[in-house]
Structures are given as structure tokens and as C-alpha cells.
């Protein structure tokens, strides 16, 4: 960063800390407005210009004229980043996965050893299978970095695949220890995160060919848990504020299990539950840190009651052993209705305590279905058939059609007449109404049962493509409805984001209603509002002092 820009960002940060502490963390729009009006700012034309420009861009963002990166990389965006980074108490990262949150600096030296070792050919082939022919040779940190980040336009399937490189180096207890220590240190020093809920795979064995990892035959579930525990404990000894939760995660796809050794998914899952409980019996010091589980993976085939059967008894056993159940649901779906249904059944059958993602409960059905209809009509006019299995195809198939003839024409690419378009619109309208009704019903039950929800804006936008832009993320709407919320990054390296960036995205997405104090409270899990005010004031003292010193 050039010196002048750095100076500007610093000046902005000082002013931002002052105004936020003096106004007790009101909304971003109001904060900027008051800042721009102040006499002191008017005296400094560079700072004033920057604030005016940012304010303008922020408005542009709300009407799709400006993208999020423009805001994040603007000097005011950077100053706000600095503000959040300096906040006196650290943040609570509620949802982070091990494999997508290890950076290239961690992976490269370990991978290099493997690629220079005796199994070089096996590793190269595996890597090519997942990342393509061009992925080899890997000669630098940058080469690794390039492979482990999701590219523009790549979505969910690719996302699960590219976590592979990190999995290759997590082969024993020591590497798990190094990994959790490295993660804790990175997150704290770079993003002021001091509490981590880490999701990780307990059982590394699989019969899915592309998921198989050479060299991990010997690693036990115990090694994984103890390794991660040791790494976090080590960081905690150096930083006593640090807190962590180890949350073993289980793939929930009904076809994802070790079919060589188990008859059914249920048998395999029960065995994993046994093994987890045995580990805790053997090492009871782990209990306070391992007291919840999560289910992850592709949920598109997991929405009906029967789909939830395989894991039901295992989860119940865990509950009776004091575990809380968290679940990735409503993240992806075949149709929006099924996306709501999957959350509904996860609540009813698995009795989940926390919903991870839950995006199907935040999409506005009227917008979603209308925009879907627009895309379909555009194709229809061009006489394009709908591709089997595509989102449009699935939604059209699932609607209750008033006129079957119209449905066939839409699927087959026969242009609709004006009357038929009206018929399509009516079908779409009633579908949206019905799903909206269902969605509110499930959301209200969730609020009633105090099931909490973790919001992951970047992950949601990049992976689902189901809502148009960051500004449409439902966080603020959920907040107003009274949903118990948390914030997470999912796989921050894969998704090229970080905890503070996620906070900024939430703030920029609702600059009018979301209060800075509220965001700080949700992100730190500090419930005492006056204490937050006090901390803001402390921050002000520090920064004003810092400004006087050279
Ligand atoms: Zn996740």
C-alpha cells in the first residue's frame, strides 16, 4: 500500500472509531452521515472526499450498480476493517471447516514432501484426477493457493472437491495438531477471532474413489480428535482468552459410507457414534470440547422423511449422551420447496439445535420464482428446451400446473402464446405463495424452539447462486424476526474471504437497519450492551492516544 493511501486509511479509522464510540454503534448509514457533517471532516478534504465517495458507492451497491469488492477495497472499507480488527474482544467464529481453512503456506511444505517421496506418482495422479491435467507440477505456495481457491462461477460440487489438497497432508496426529494451531494463530492475528467452532471429519475412510487418500490407512479417529485438541490447547496456553469447540462432522448423503465394511449407512454411522463415545470415555478431558456434532455434505437428495432415517438412531444416542446436534441444511436444494422441507425434517426427525446455512428459509419466494420464470421465458422464446436436472427444469417439474400443456411446452421449448404466459404466471404465483407460507411456518417454529441459525454470506452467495447479490442476504431480516444468529466463514480460504470481511458484507448489505453494536454483539456473542459501549469508548481512548504518539 502506498504511503499516502495508508495515511488516509489510518485517518479514516481514527474518525470512524471516534464517531462509532460517540454514537454508540448506530447503523452504518447514520454513522457516515454524521461523520460527513462534522466540521472537522470538512476541514480535511481528502478524508471528506473519501467518505463522500464511499457513501455514494454504498448507495450504488443497494441498486446493483456497484459490487461488493469495490466497497471492501475502498479506503473507507479498509478503515472499517481496521475498526473491527481492533475491537477489544475477539470474535466467535461459529462455523469453520478444517480442510477449507488451511492456507497454502501450511499446505505447500507438507505437500512438497509427499510429492518428493516414494509415492510421488500416486499423489500426482490423484491430484490430476481432482484438479485437472494442468495442476501438476506444483512448485510453490502460489501454485497451491491457486488450486485451493474456488474460481468465479464454480459451485457446490467443485467446492467439495477442491478441499482435497488439504486432506492429502492431514495424515497423522501431528499434522492435525499443527493444523489447528496454525489455524488458531492465523485467525487471531489476522482477523481478531478468539473463539472457534471447528468442523472436521472424524472418519477419513470412504469408498468413493476420488475421495480416497493415499497414506491415511493408519490414522485413527482418536488421532484426529487428539491432534486437533493438542493444537488448540497449545494456542490456548499462549493466549488464555482463546476458546474452542471441536465439532465432528458426518457426511449425510445416504450413499456416502464405507460400503466395504458396513452393510448400510446406518450401520456405519452407528459405528462412528460408538467410536466417538469410546474416545470420550477414554479421554474424559475432551468432553467439554467435544459436545456437539454436525452433518455436512450434499443435501439435494435429502429432504423426505425417509431420507433422515439412516442417521436418526445414531444422533439420538448422541443426544442422550449430552451432545447437541447441528446440521447443514437449507444450503442447496433441488427445488426451493424441498429446501424448506429438508430443514423441516431435520428439525422434526433429528431435533437439531442449530441450523447451519438455512438459506432456504431466507430466500424470498416471490422474487425467486418470478426471476426463475423470467429466465425460463427467455429460453422459451428462443425455443430452447430446459436441460434435464437443471434448477429451472426441477422447479418447473415440481410446480402444480393448472395447464399441463403449458408445462410440456415450457420443458420442450415450444414458444408460449400470451394466454399461456398468463397461465404460467398464475402457476408460478401460486407456487411462490405456497412455498412462502411453508417457509414462514418452518421459520416460526424454529424461532419458537429457539433453534439458532448460523449465517455464512460468502459461502451462501458463491455456492448456491440462489440469491442475486450479497445485499440480498437474509441476515438482517432474520435478525428482525428474532432468530438467534451466529456468523461463520465456512471455508474461508476456499472462498477467499475471512471473518471480518463477512461482518463487513453483512453491514454493507443493510446499512440502514443493521446497527454496528448489534453486529458486534452477534459476532462476539457478548450480550451485555453497556459493556460493548464501554469497549468502544476504551477503543477510542487507545486510538486517540496512538494518534498523538508518532
Ligand atoms: Zn459448512
Shape: globular
Query: How many separate helices?
Result: 25
For the secondary structure, the number of strands is: 8
Mean pLDDT rating:
92
For this structure, the CATH topology of one domain is TIM Barrel
Cofactors, ions, other ligands: zinc ion
- Helical amount among residues, as a percent range? 55-70%
β-strand amount:
5-15%
Q: Based on helices, strands and strand pairing, what is the structural class?
A: alpha/beta
Give a verbal description of the structure.
This protein is of the alpha/beta class and 550 residues long. Among the domains are: 3-89 and 528-548, no CATH class; 90-243, TIM Barrel, CATH 3.20.20.140; 365-440, no CATH class. The chain contains 25 helices and 8 strands. The chain has an 8-stranded parallel β-sheet. The model has no long low-confidence stretch (mean pLDDT 92). It binds zinc ion (ZN). The site of zinc ion has 6 residues, from strand 1. One of its GO terms (cellular component) is cytosol. One of its GO terms (biological process) is adenosine catabolic process. GO terms for molecular function: adenosine deaminase activity.
What brief labels describe this structure?
alpha/beta, 58% helix, TIM Barrel, single chain, 550 residues, 9% strand, binds zinc ion, globular
Amino acid at each position: 500500500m502506498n504511503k499516502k493511501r495508508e495515511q488516509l486509511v489510518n485517518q479514516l479509522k481514527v474518525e470512524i472509531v471516534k464517531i462509532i464510540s460517540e454514537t454508540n454503534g448506530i447503523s452504518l448509514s447514520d454513522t457516515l452521515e454524521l461523520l460527513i457533517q462534522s466540521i472537522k471532516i470538512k476541514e480535511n478534504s481528502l478524508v471528506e472526499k473519501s467518505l463522500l465517495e464511499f457513501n455514494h458507492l454504498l448507495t450504488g451497491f443497494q441498486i446493483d450498480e456497484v459490487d461488493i469488492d469495490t466497497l471492501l477495497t475502498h479506503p473507507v472499507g479498509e478503515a472499517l476493517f481496521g475498526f473491527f480488527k481492533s475491537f477489544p474482544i475477539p470474535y466467535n467464529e461459529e462455523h469453520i471447516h478444517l480442510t477449507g481453512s488451511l492456507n497454502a503456506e501450511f499446505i505447500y511444505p507438507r505437500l512438497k514432501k509427499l510429492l518428493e517421496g516414494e509415492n510421488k506418482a500416486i499423489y500426482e495422479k490423484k491430484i490430476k484426477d481432482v484438479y485437472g491435467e494442468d495442476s501438476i507440477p506444483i512448485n510453490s505456495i502460489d501454485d497451491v493457493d491457486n488450486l485451493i481457491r474456488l474460481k468465479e462461477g464454480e459451485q457446490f460440487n467443485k467446492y467439495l472437491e477442491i478441499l482435497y489438497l488439504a486432506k492429502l497432508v492431514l495424515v497423522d496426529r501431528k499434522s492435525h495438531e499443527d493444523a489447528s494451531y496454525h489455524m488458531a494463530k492465523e485467525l487471531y492475528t489476522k482477523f481478531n477471532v478468539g473463539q472457534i467452532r471447528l468442523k472436521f471429519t472424524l472418519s477419513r475412510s470412504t469408498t468413493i474413489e476420488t475421495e480416497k487418500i493415499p497414506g491415511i490407512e493408519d490414522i485413527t479417529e482418536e488421532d484426529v480428535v487428539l491432534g486437533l485438541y493438542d493444537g488448540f490447547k497449545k494456542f490456548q496456553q499462549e493466549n488464555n482468552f482463546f476458546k474452542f469447540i471441536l465439532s465432528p462432522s458426518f457426511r449425510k448423503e445416504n450413499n456416502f459410507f464405507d460400503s466395504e465394511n458396513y452393510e448400510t449407512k446406518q450401520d456405519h454411522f452407528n459405528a462412528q457414534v460408538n467410536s466417538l463415545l469410546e474416545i470420550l470415555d477414554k479421554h474424559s478431558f475432551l468432553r467439554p470440547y467435544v459436545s456437539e456434532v454436525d452433518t455436512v455434505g450434499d443435501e439435494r437428495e435429502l429432504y423426505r422423511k425417509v431420507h433422515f432415517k439412516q442417521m436418526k438412531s445414531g444422533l439420538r444416542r448422541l443426544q442422550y449422551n449430552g451432545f447437541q446436534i447441528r446440521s447443514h441444511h437449507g444450503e442447496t436444494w433441488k427445488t426451493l420447496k424441498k429446501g424448506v422441507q429438508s430443514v423441516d425434517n431435520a428439525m422434526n426427525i433429528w431435533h437439531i439445535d442449530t441450523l447451519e446455512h438455512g438459506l432456504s428459509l431466507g430466500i424470498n419466494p416471490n422474487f425467486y420464482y418470478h426471476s426463475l420464470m423470467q429466465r425460463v421465458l427467455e429460453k422459451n422464446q428462443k425455443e430452447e428446451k430446459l436441460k434435464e436436472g437443471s434448477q429451472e427444469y426441477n422447479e418447473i417439474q415440481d410446480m402444480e400446473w393448472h395447464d399441463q400443456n403449458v408445462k410440456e411446452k415450457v420443458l420442450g421449448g415450444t414458444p408460449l402464446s400470451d394466454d399461456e404466459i398468463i397461465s404460467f404466471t398464475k402457476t408460478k404465483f401460486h407456487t411462490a405463495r405456497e412455498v412462502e407460507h411453508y417457509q414462514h411456518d418452518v421459520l416460526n417454529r424454529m424461532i419458537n424452539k429457539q433453534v439458532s441459525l448460523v449465517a455464512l454470506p460468502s459461502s451462501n452467495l458463491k455456492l448456491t447462486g440462489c440469491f442475486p447479490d450479497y445485499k440480498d442476504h437474509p441476515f438482517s431480516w432474520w435478525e428482525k424476526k428474532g432468530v438467534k444468529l451466529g456468523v461463520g466463514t465456512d471455508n474461508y480460504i476456499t472462498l477467499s474471504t475471512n471473518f471480518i470481511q463477512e461482518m463487513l458484507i453483512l453491514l454493507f448489505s443493510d446499512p440502514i437497519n443493521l446497527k454496528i453494536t448489534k453486529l458486534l454483539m452477534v459476532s462476539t456473542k457478548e450480550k451485555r450492551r453497556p459493556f460493548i459501549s464501554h469497549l468502544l469508548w476504551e477503543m477510542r481512548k487507545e486510538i486517540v492516544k496512538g494518534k498523538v504518539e508518532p
